[in-house]
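We include the pair:
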Amino acid sequence: MNLPILQNAVSCFPLPKLGEAEIPIYATLLERLENSLTVSQKALLSLDIAAVERGTKEQSNLCRRIEALFAHPAASTQSDDDAGKMQTSPTISANWPVELSAAPARILHHGRVQAALLSRAQRALNVVAHFKSLPEATYAAPKWQTYPNCGASQLK
C-alpha cells in the first residue's frame, strides 16, 4: 500500500523552527490535515469513493503546503491564497507548544487508522473479485414436474 502521508511523515512534520508569523499557519495546516483524515475515514466507512479521492488530494496538498512552509516560510505566508484566514485562526492558544507537539502524533495515528481501513476495504474487494472470477456453480436447483391430472409434483 502506497500512502504518501505515512511515507512522508518525517519530512511532513519536522520540529517547528518557525517565526511567530508562521506558527498560526502551521497549526491551522495541521488542524486541517487532521480534520481531512477524519472525514476520509468516515468516507471509507461509508464506501464513498469520491469523498475518499477528494480527501486524498486535499491531504496531499496540505502536506505539500507544510513542506513549503518549512522550505520558504516568508514565501508561504505571502503567497497563500487564504493566509489571512489562517493567521486569524482561533485555534492557537497560550498552550500552543504542547498542542503543536501533539498534533503530528494525532495525525500519524489518523494516518495509520486510514491505512488499516484501506487495507480492510482492499481485502473485501479482493473477496468480491475472487467470487466474480469463479465459474458459475455446477449445482442447479431441482426441476419439478407437475402432473396435470392429480396436481402432485415430483422430482424429474
In short: The chain has a mean pLDDT of 75. The CA atoms of residues 95 and 106 lie 17 Å apart. The longest strand covers residues 144-146.
